Task: structure prediction
Amino acid sequence: MKKAKKVKIILGLFYLLVVSSFLYFFLSKFTLEELTSYEFIKNNRDYFFELKESNLILLSIIFLSLTIFWVFMLGFGSPVGLMAGFIFGKWIGLFLVTLGCTIGATFLYAFGNYFLADLIKKKFLKKFKNLEVKIKKNEFTFFVLYRFVGGVPFPIANLLPAMFNVSLKSYFFGTLFGIIPSLFIIVSLGSGIEKIIKKNLVAPEISEIILSPDVYLPILGFVALIFISMIIKKLFYKD
Result:
């Protein structure tokens, strides 16, 4: 247990160091006014578009690598999903962010299962004890549903299966297929925002953004996904 606590502290400090260093570097290059300006967003959209046109493979590898690292460092999937749609479009973006999140989550799980399993069991096993029988029946099906239903912050959801020692194969493919629906909606939203920026030289009205099919359809899809998840969740966590 002492070893797990030390690892947890070291990981937390390293994570804070990386995030702080990134923010310091990023904010030293740009002012807050620049970051929130429409011109800044549009110029970066144009920059990434030109970079994508000239070297799609290199940009994809860089984005995939950063996504893996981001998720391993307890990052959430939504920000990288929006960026994937914004930079790469709906389908390439979905492929890259799904693969990146799956690999990053699997690395994090393997790490947590080795170093933090006892700590995770102590904190969460009593609450999720009823899932143990369901997992043993069919790990893969369980894990697809577990990812689809959600309801737990992404970094925590990546580590919780260490309680049940889920196999890496079931974890990887269950995550891969389970996160596609939610990521598809997020990536579609990012792609829709990019299309709006492409069409407008100046910042459009909020109403124009919301009433655009490229934006409101993913939002409606997200709402529908929440209702479906709530229904499945009642059955999924039922004793």
Notes: The chain has 14 helices and no strands.
